[in-house]
Inverse folding.
């Protein structure tokens, strides 16, 4: 039997591994992909789908077609447990998967347990397929509302800000004057970590568009109709969307793998686990040797390194080291086919920024279309 390379998750780094395998298989190895969904919705374009700029298909990478092109068998299930010493996976469909080499790019999970009421009453953005499936019902509730419909978004990072603008744009498109969007962050300005003028510009735009921003008090709990802040203030919220950053799934911590204090898999500069060198990890699930924010930018940048290192390791060669770039370009859409670009201390805004983002996002997705040339080009995240 051939040695087994298992790819766990079809995230931003693994689609590049699959593309690389489509160009050139690894001789003598059987490669399999475990993924709960047969497509990967590209998160950078999700706000554009809500805003009505894209069809869902425009934002989706067909993992099944990509795996087929790469000669990789796709198993549609999720990993629920890992025994890193025994090199064995437990899957949601009850199957056990054995491997000689494992690569993990399963992304983050929603942080539901840190906020009382979130698991029962919140709509998490992850898994993205869960949010996509829930959207028609939410849209129908908004459309049917005779009085004001308060939609609260908790988490004012890039995803929260883009989605707040996107919902507001959708309300304009659909004629939903009853929808009020509130974005709740944990500091006076949204987009923590970006330059102050980009943050102020985002806040000003929100105010102009009638999006309410609350950043002075953290959320204490939510229920079916309200969001309660730690200050004691209570906001009406007929629906609450959770965008509160990236949490680690539970299974890596229980697997025997070395993980950081948050449960993310600690890897060295060559993306191999610090404790189990037969296991690699990349993307948000990994805690890199040079710590970086959880962001699509670094998941994408890790892709080519991961692909080259998996090949090298399978072929018995030494892997290469990688230091993630210090700065990342953030392109944040503001709903109206405009966007804010932020790079280090520099931030600019305009329709041309959105066209730029749109063009690089499209070319990223296009790379993975069946029959595409699979050329290298970095997306906006
Ligand atoms: C709306 C939105 C907008 C965003 N905008 C930006 C942006 O502009 N710039 C930016 O840098 N970042 C952005 N982000 C963050 C970005 O999406 C993440 O940082 C990025 O998705 C991380 O990539 P990843 O490859 O680690 O994981 P993911 O893209 O989440 O991919 C993980 C894959 O693994 C699969 N999977 C999950 N669990 C399992 C399991 N147990 N077993 C098997 N497979 C599993 C999932 O189905 C998925 O296919 C945004 C996020 C959202 C939600």
């Amino acid at each position: 039997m051939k040695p087994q390379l298992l790819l766990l998750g079809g995230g931003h780094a693994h689609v590049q591994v699959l593309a690389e395998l489509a160009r050139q298989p690894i001789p003598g190895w059987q490669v399999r992909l475990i993924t709960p969904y047969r497509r990967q919705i590209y998160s950078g374009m999700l706000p554009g789908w809500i805003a009505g700029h894209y069809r869902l298909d425009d934002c989706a990478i067909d993992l099944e077609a990509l795996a087929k092109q790469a000669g990789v068998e796709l198993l549609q299930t999720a990993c629920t447990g890992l025994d890193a010493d025994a090199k064995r996976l437990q899957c949601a469909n009850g199957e056990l998967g054995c491997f000689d080499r494992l690569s993990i790019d399963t992304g983050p999970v929603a942080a539901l347990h840190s906020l009382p009421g979130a698991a029962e009453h919140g709509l998490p953005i992850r898994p993205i397929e869960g949010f996509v499936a829930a959207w028609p019902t939410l849209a129908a509730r908004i459309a049917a509302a005779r009085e004001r419909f308060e939609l609260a978004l908790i988490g004012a990072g890039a995803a929260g800000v883009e989605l707040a603008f996107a919902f507001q744009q959708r309300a304009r498109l659909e004629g939903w004057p009853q929808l009020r969007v509130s974005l709740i962050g944990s500091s006076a300005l949204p987009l923590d970590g970006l330059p102050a003028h980009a943050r102020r510009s985002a806040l000003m735009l929100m105010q102009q568009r009638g999006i309410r921003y609350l950043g002075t008090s953290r959320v204490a709990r939510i229920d079916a109709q309200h969001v309660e802040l730690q200050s004691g203030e209570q906001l009406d919220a007929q629906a609450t969307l959770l965008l509160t950053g990236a949490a680690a799934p539970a299974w890596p911590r229980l697997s025997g793998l070395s993980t950081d204090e948050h449960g993310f898999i600690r890897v060295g500069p060559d993306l191999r686990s610090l404790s189990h060198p037969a296991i690699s990890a990349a993307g948000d699930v990994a805690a890199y040797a040079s710590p970086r924010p959880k962001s699509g930018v670094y998941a994408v940048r890790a892709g080519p390194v991961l692909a080259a290192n998996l090949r090298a390791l399978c072929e018995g060669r030494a892997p290469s080291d990688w230091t993630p770039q210090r700065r990342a370009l953030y392109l944040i859409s503001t709903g109206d086919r405009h966007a804010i670009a932020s790079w280090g201390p520099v931030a600019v805004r305009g329709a041309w920024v959105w066209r730029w983002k749109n063009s690089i996002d499209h070319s990223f997705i296009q790379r993975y279309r069946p029959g595409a040339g699979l050329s290298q080009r970095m997306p906006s995240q």
